[in-house]
Structure formats: structure tokens, C-alpha cells
Amino acid sequence: MLPAHTEQLPVHTEESCMGYGDGGRYHNVGLSRRDLLPATRKQLATLYRLTRRDHSALGLNRGQASEAIDKAVEAKEEKRARRNAGGFERLYEIVYRQAAQAATDAGRSWLARHPEKLFDVAEADTLTPCHGVVGYAFLRKPPRSNPFMQWFAEHHPEAKGDVLVIDHEFMGRWERDLHVACQAAALKILKRQGVQGLRLFVREEPGENSRIQA
């Protein structure tokens, strides 16, 4: 008696459930694991923000990228906890407030030495008195590796770009030399407390002359 014919059914592995096209790219047909898909742009951008390293060339999949993000967040929290344990969070907050107060005091002193209005600047429907040449001064941030800048980035996420914003009383004024006095005073405080790498930049606004009325 002949043995009954049995047909061996194909085993549907994960790999057999993916269709491969040109270049070795696979097409999801419904049964693939999403964590094996390539890391998303959002994941890579998050990794760069957390680590300041470009992971795009490492070939990470979504699962690996997710694990890397978790580790980076954990490392950041541990670093922050160490700073808190050493009292650095409170110290940096005090230093920043001292720098802002020094900038305000320097601005008041500058205006006291320059009491006369030289001209008015037209702003919307008002004329703003100006006591000096129009311009601006600012502090450029040091590298993010600086502990103070790490604290600043965490507590002032609204401050974008490479300018260290010092929140003083005269931020909205037009006078270049007033801003120089404010920023120089803040810089002196920050350097005294060990914040290195800051640079003072001065910028004149010659184009504003068209908005100046004698």
C-alpha cells in the first residue's frame, strides 16, 4: 500500500512575509516588525539634539534608535542629578540673576551719564528718544559642553540661536553704547564665576538712519 501523499506547507517566517524590491529595500505586506524598519527622521533628530552626534550613517533601525534615545535621556538626567547634588543648579540661577542685575545697573549708569536726547526713533505711531548711536551688542554663547550653557539651555529653551540672552531692563533700547555697557557688565560677572568662552559682539544699524527723525 502506497503511503499517503502529504504536502509540506511553507513556513511563513518574518522574512518570507516581506517582498524585496530594487536595492534590497523591503515592502511591508502586513506582518513585519515595525521596530526593524529604518530609524525615522524624528528619531535621528532627537538623538542629535540629545547627544550632539550625527547617527544617520549608523544604519539604526527604529528599535535601536528608541533604545539609544532612552539611554541618552537617562544619561542626561543622571548628569543633571549630579549637578543638583552639587548645588550647581542653584548656583547658576544666582549667577544668571547677578549678571542680569549688573547689566541693568550698568544701563542706568550709562543713561545717567548721557541724559540728553540726540534724536527720536520712529516706532509705529510713537517717537522714542535716543541718547546715542543706534546699534546693538550681545554675548555669543560658548560651546554646549560648558556646564553653565547646559543649564541655560534646559531652563531657557525659548532662547534659540547662538546668543546668550541677558534679561535686563534696557533690552528694548536703541542705543549701541548702552547695550555695550549692559553686556560688558554681565560678561564680567559671568567670567568671574567661571563661565568661559563668551564673546561680546557689537553691531551698528546704519540702515536705521532712515527711521530716525531729528
Question: How would you sum up this structure, described in words?
Answer:
The chain has 214 residues and is an alpha+beta fold. It folds into 2 domains: 25-85, no CATH class; 89-213, no CATH class. Helices cover 41% and strands 15% of the residues. The protein has a 3-stranded antiparallel beta sheet, with no helix packed on it. Strands 6-5-7 form a 3-stranded antiparallel beta sheet, with helices on one face. Strand 1 (18-20) and strand 2 (26-28) form a beta hairpin. It is elongated, with a radius of gyration of 29 Å. It starts with 17 loop residues before the first strand and ends with a strand. Mean pLDDT is 80; it is low at 9-31 and 208-214.
Summarize the helices and strands and which ones pair or pack.
Blueprint: E1 18-20, E2 26-28, H1 41-51, H2 62-85, H3 88-113, E3 119-123, E4 126-130, E5 135-140, H4 147-155, E6 163-164, H5 176-192, E7 199-204, E8 212-213
